[in-house]
Amino acid sequence: MTLKLSVVQSATDFDKIAPMDHDAWKIPYNPQLKHFRPQFPTREQAIAYARENSKCRFEDRDPEKQFWLKVEDENEEVIGAAQWAVNIPAEGAERTVASWYPEGSEEREFAERFINGLWGFLGERVTRPHMVVHVEHRYRGAGRMLIKWGTAKADELGIETVISSLHSARGAYEKSGLGYIEEIPPSRDLEVENPSAKWKELQADDLSGCLMWRPVGRDFVVGEDKAPWQE
Question: Which residues belong to any copy of the N-acetyltransferase domain (predicted)?
């Protein structure tokens, strides 16, 4: 079986990427995803939203700093996709507003506390320019290809690679040269007095993650390497 990795050049590619993206995130279950995306009653509606949203972001991207990739099989079906970006940390970054949830809803408040708590955790540690992956899927070797492309690009640019990973994906990143640095705990902001039943339901998911890191120019060496914020 031959897999082909290429950089996305046209927004029309998302007609194939969006359905794959939607279905791939179902297995294994991703407890964080619903806080980053609106929820829809049907698969078709969810895919339509993701397709149009991705097309808009693709058209508005900085092509020197943001890269969409796809992996196709021998039948030209998309079986993997990723968005890599060069991230240059800046002070006073704006807080994320979860506008995909109704204003005043508990879902919106929870999502904003979770997302901004995650960004705050990363921002306290990762203060140098780095490569970061926003979307990644693991299927028939496609995931390894997507990760390796990003780490190679980081080496070309002379910057580190930093990834906020789900626990289920940790092994794939370690096999691709990244090292596990520490666990990312759920934000302390998620603890509230007298939480409602809905809030408790949202808290019931395991929202922790893994902070992965790779130095410039080579793979992480367990027992020898430390991330710069650990030194």
Answer: 37-177
